[in-house]
């Protein structure tokens, strides 16, 4: 029985970077067994000092290993069952290296290097358990290449990836098929409520719709609506307000395309507390968000002030320490904000230069620039919180930021997942991808992927051909 069962469960050898990337990875391998080489423990020990995310994770991984091993010291070589420490998430066993292993490494690989010693352990285990699938799990691409070159099985750690293919990421919009009304429009009800037009439709497409998803159909009579309710095979759609028309302009800004109109409908909706806007450079993410923020802060007084924060990851070399207060230190990172305020604070005919300067000072007094580093333990009440360049945040940092929101606060995340500057994040594991995927379909959140650049013909062409 046991001999037949054994090959079906795999043996995963964990590299240090997997534990430092996600300390809970010990519980993520379900029924399979895990082997932690001595060199992995040694490297965890070398990386535990400091305040960085990596050091914090190394300490967390060590604490988890200590909690698992505690009480099993006498028969550690038989493997430690993981079902209890993992709260039944994993049913495999954890093996620690209990004997010196001198694997037969090729002479070209220096044994002093930690990576090579882990590969040596893997070769030894492959020889020892020929019937079993032994797999190395590592975030280090070069190590995986080396292992494969030696005929060993190596994989990346995928568990924290929200999506394997970011093309499948929720866009927040859906084009309706040409025959939509014939199929879903039977027994359609229509009514007005607080100057809003609502439709109740029934049909086979309704179960696929998500709340706050935008539906559109172009033609002689274009149709743009948002899903407000959904139950079984019926859904309630609400016609959108047209922010492309000058009479509905927000702080002098009008929507230039369909997606911008969708975004403004979300940004101006007081019932939506969390918004994510994705899009290439120049699609108008920051401009629309700021225009909506200024209108709701200065005109309708819905929020007390605008708070802007972003991850300080330089694109090139860092320029060293900066003098001044928190606000002044953040100023160089806020060039995008300055550029957008210049657009929003256009010279008006009536006020002239004085009026413009006064408006600029008023706007300045209502916009606070904060650093991410001091966000823990804060609570924002009635604030309009903008998280810019959110693609550089890890899911954990994103959670820390969004949970700062107190009553009456709106959080807007902006980013472009094809422009990640942090070395440890990919499009699949970015915090922005994570929140877009987790928040879709919630009543008080919305998402739009902006498609068309509106910056200039030069910028559009550059984004296309370069």
Model description:
By secondary structure, this protein is α/β, with parallel strands linked by helices. Residues 1-6 have low confidence and may be disordered. The protein has 3 domains: 2-155, 3-Layer(aba) Sandwich (Rossmann fold); 167-239, no CATH class; 255-465, P-loop containing nucleotide triphosphate hydrolases (Rossmann fold), CATH 3.40.50.300. It is 31% helix and 19% strand. The radius of gyration is 27 Å and the shape is globular. Helix 3 (38-46) packs antiparallel against helix 5, helix 8 (258-267) packs parallel to helix 9 (285-299) and helix 13 packs across helix 14 (431-439). It has a 6-stranded mixed β-sheet.
Find the CATH superfamily of the largest domain.
Answer: P-loop containing nucleotide triphosphate hydrolases
On the 0-100 scale, what is the average pLDDT? 83
Can you identify the CATH class of the largest domain? Alpha Beta
Euclidean distance between termini CA atoms: 60 Å
- Main beta sheet: strand number and arrangement? 6 strands, mixed
- Helix content class: 25-40%
Class inferred from helices and paired strands: alpha/beta
| β-sheet strand percentage | 15-25%
Please tell me the CATH architecture of the largest domain by its name: 3-Layer(aba) Sandwich
- How many strand units? 18
- Give, in spatial order, the strands making up the sheet with the most strands: 3-4-2-1-5-6
* Helical stretch tally: 15
**Within the CATH hierarchy, at the fold level, what is the topology of the largest domain?**
Rossmann fold
């Amino acid at each position: 029985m046991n001999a037949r069962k054994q090959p079906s469960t795999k043996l995963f050898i964990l590299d240090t970077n997997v534990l430092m990337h996600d300390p809970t990875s010990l519980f993520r391998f379900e029924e399979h067994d895990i082997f932690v080489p001595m060199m992995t423990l040694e490297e965890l020990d070398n990386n535990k000092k400091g305040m960085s995310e990596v050091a914090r994770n190394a300490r967390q991984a060590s604490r988890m290993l200590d909690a698992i091993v505690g009480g099993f010291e006498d028969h550690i070589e038989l493997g430690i069952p993981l079902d209890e420490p993992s709260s039944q998430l994993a049913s495999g066993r954890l093996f620690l290296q209990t004997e010196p292993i001198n694997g037969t490494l090729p002479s070209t690989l220096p044994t002093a290097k930690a990576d090579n010693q882990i590969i040596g352990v893997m070769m030894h285990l492959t020889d020892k358990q020929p019937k079993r699938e032994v797999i190395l799990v590592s975030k280090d691409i070069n190590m995986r290449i080396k292992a494969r070159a030696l005929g060993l099985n190596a994989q990346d750690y995928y568990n924290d990836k929200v999506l394997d293919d970011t093309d499948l990421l929720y866009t927040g919009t859906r084009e309706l098929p040409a025959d939509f009304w014939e199929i879903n429009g039977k027994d359609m009800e229509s009514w007005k409520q607080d100057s809003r037009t609502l439709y109740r439709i029934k049909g086979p497409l309704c179960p696929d719709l998500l709340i706050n998803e935008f539906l559109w159909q172009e033609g002689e009579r274009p149709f743009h609506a948002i899903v407000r309710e959904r139950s079984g095979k019926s859904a309630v759609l609400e016609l959108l307000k047209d922010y492309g028309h000058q009479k509905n302009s927000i702080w002098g800004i009008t929507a230039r395309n369909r997606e911008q109109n969708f975004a403004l409908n979300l940004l101006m909706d007081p019932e939506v507390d969390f918004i994510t806007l994705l899009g290439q450079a120049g699609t108008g993410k920051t401009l629309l968000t700021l225009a909506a923020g200024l209108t709701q802060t200065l005109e309708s007084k819905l929020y007390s002030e605008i708070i802007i924060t972003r991850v300080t990851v330089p694109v090139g070399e860092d320029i060293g320490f900066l003098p001044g207060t928190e606000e002044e230190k953040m100023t160089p990172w806020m060039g995008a904000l300055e550029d957008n305020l210049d657009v929003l604070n256009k010279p008006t005919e009536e006020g002239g230069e004085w009026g413009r300067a006064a408006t600029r000072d008023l706007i300045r007094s209502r916009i606070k620039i904060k650093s991410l580093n001091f966000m823990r333990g804060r609570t924002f009440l009635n604030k309009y919180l903008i998280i810019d360049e959110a693609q550089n945040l890890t899911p954990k940092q994103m959670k820390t930021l969004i949970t700062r929101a107190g009553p009456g606060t709106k959080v807007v995340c902006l980013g472009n997942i094809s422009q990640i500057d942090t070395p440890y994040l990919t499009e699949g594991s970015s915090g922005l991808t994570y929140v877009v995927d987790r928040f879709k379909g919630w009543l008080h959140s919305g998402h739009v992927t902006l498609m068309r650049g509106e910056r200039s013909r030069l910028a559009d062409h550059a984004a296309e051909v370069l």
